[in-house]
Each structure stands twice: as structure tokens, then as C-alpha cells.
Design goal:
This protein is an alpha/beta fold and 250 residues long. Helices cover 41% and strands 13% of the residues. Strand 3 (73-74) and strand 4 form a beta hairpin. It binds adenosine-5'-diphosphate and magnesium ion.
Length: 250
């Protein structure tokens, strides 16, 4: 089982759009997929028309695993399950703070889901908190959408700096360009430059597209209502690049 997360310190960069479409692409490719919505805003589950989760009390890792398990919902797409977000996630940090090995609890909990899924994908809230640190330690790869602007570039550098300071493996970070506008000169310049200083930078870029914004109207992944538009094809290409890194392709 692979554990992936869609994460950035910044909000509004395309984390949820990635999580929703990547989950769909994974399922389409035959992988049993669980999408875990960790953002109390609950956008990922909204896009899948899945209601909010039942509240549960988190006392320890065991009750957290139980609470997550009882909130697993089937999506409209066979092979793709979702755990909608829960307002009690706002207490996540306090709960984790009181536990032994407080940075590794999520990894432990997700181990329990191993037999049932090929991939678990987490849609994360912005910020760096104790929950994010759990996400970092639970993930095999952290997918980081980067809009090609100066501020996004700076945020990516803050994240790589944090990984260095905390002795976390920097090669887990897999940034990719999100909401790209090829006609924008600054986008082109940053895209030409930035990947050279981040070895894990994914080659696939997601274009800015009104088709993606319409997910809120259709309430389903872009890939489900506009299967072969440019952005949908880009999400599929990104999925392949993550699953089959170039070195492993025949
Ligand atoms: N590739 C894209 N092109 C155009 N709009 C996008 C794209 N990706 C995301 N959006 C829109 O931008 C907004 C923020 O995206 P979202 O995925 O919710 O970001 P985050 O989860 O990082 O906060 C949403 O309204 C979404 O529809
Ligand atoms: Mg989001």
C-alpha cells in the first residue's frame, strides 16, 4: 500500500483539486483507493457528494482508527472510498500532543487500513501543525501544488527548509506546477528555473482551466464529467508519473 498526501503550507493552490482527481484517476486505473479528507472545510467530500462524518471522540490511536473506520463511505465510483472530514479534527493537534510518539500516530493508524486499499490519499489543510508533521511521517510521497508565482516559490522553500531542519527525507517532497497559465511571462520564467533546485519536481503541470473550477457545480471529479479535456489528461499524466517514476518505466 502507498500513502500519498496532497499538501502545501499555502491555501488555494489546488490541493483538493489534486486529491479529488488523483483519487479518481487511481481508481480508474484499478487501484483500491481511500481518500481521507483531513481538512475540516470538507471540500473533498463535498465534491464527491458524500455527507460529513459522524463525530467521534479521539482519546488514543485506537479510538482514532475506530472513528476513521466507522466513517468510511463508498463514493459513486466503485473502488473509491472516502472518509469525509470531521469537525473534531480541529482538536487533532491537542489529541496528538498528549500521545507518546506524537509525530507518528497517523502512520500507525493508517497501517490498519493496509489490507483493504492499494493507495491512501490524504487531502490536507494548509499550515504546518502537529497534524502536518504526522502527515509527513505517514506519507510515502507528499504532492505539493505550486502555482508559478514568487509567493508559492517562497512557500516551497519554507517547506524544504523545514524538512532539512527536521531531518525528514526531502526526496518525499514531489512538487508540481498547478494552475499554470502559459501566456503569463512570470509563470514561464519560474517554471524554467524552479525545478532545477528541487530534484523531486514532477514534470507534469496542471493547467489553469475553467473546467476544473466547475467541479463545484458538477460535484464530481473533473475526470468524471470532462474526461479528455487538457486538465483531465494532465491529472492522469500526473497519476502515472507518481505511480511509475521514469526510472521504473520500461
Ligand atoms: N487547475 C485549475 N484551474 C483553475 N482553477 C482551479 C484549478 N485548480 C483548482 N482551481 C480552483 O481554485 C480554487 C482553490 O483550489 P483548491 O483545490 O480548493 O485549493 P486548496 O485545496 O489548495 O485550498 C478552487 O475554486 C478550485 O476550483
Ligand atoms: Mg483544500
Amino acid at each position: 500500500m502507498k500513502i500519498l498526501s496532497s499538501y502545501s503550507i499555502k491555501g488555494g493552490v489546488g490541493k483538493t483539486a489534486l486529491a479529488v482527481n488523483l483519487a479518481f484517476a487511481l481508481c480508474e486505473a484499478g487501484h483500491r483507493t481511500l481518500l481521507l479528507d483531513l481538512d475540516p472545510q470538507g471540500a473533498a467530500a463535498f465534491y464527491f457528494r458524500v455527507g460529513s462524518a459522524e463525530k467521534f471522540r479521539m482519546r488514543d490511536a485506537h479510538s482514532l482508527a475506530e472513528g476513521l473506520r466507522k466513517n468510511i463511505r463508498e463514493s459513486d465510483f466503485p473502488g473509491l472510498d472516502i472518509i469525509p472530514s470531521n469537525l473534531c479534527y480541529r482538536h487533532f493537534d491537542i489529541l496528538l500532543d498528549g500521545m507518546a510518539k506524537r509525530r507518528k500516530q497517523l502512520r500507525k493508524v493508517l497501517e490498519e487500513f493496509k489490507p483493504d486499499y492499494d493507495v491512501i490519499l490524504m487531502d490536507c489543510p494548509p499550515n504546518i501543525t502537529l497534524l502536518s508533521e504526522n502527515v509527513f511521517r505517514a506519507s510515502d510521497a507528499i504532492l505539493v501544488p505550486v502555482i508559478p508565482t514568487v509567493l508559492s516559490k517562497r512557500t516551497l522553500e519554507q517547506l524544504t527548509g523545514f524538512f532539512r531542519d527536521e531531518d525528514l527525507p526531502g526526496d518525499m517532497l514531489r512538487p508540481f506546477f498547478s494552475m499554470v497559465q502559459k501566456r503569463n511571462k512570470m509563470h514561464r520564467e519560474i517554471m524554467a528555473d524552479l525545478p532545477a533546485s528541487h530534484p523531486g519536481f514532477l514534470k507534469t503541470a496542471i493547467p489553469f482551466s475553467a473546467d476544473v473550477e466547475k467541479m463545484g457545480v458538477h460535484r464530481m471529479p473533473l475526470l468524471a464529467y470532462s474526461s479528455i479535456c487538457e486538465a483531465a489528461m494532465a491529472y492522469r499524466a500526473l497519476c502515472n508519473e507518481i505511480l511509475f517514476p521514469p526510472g521504473l518505466q520500461s
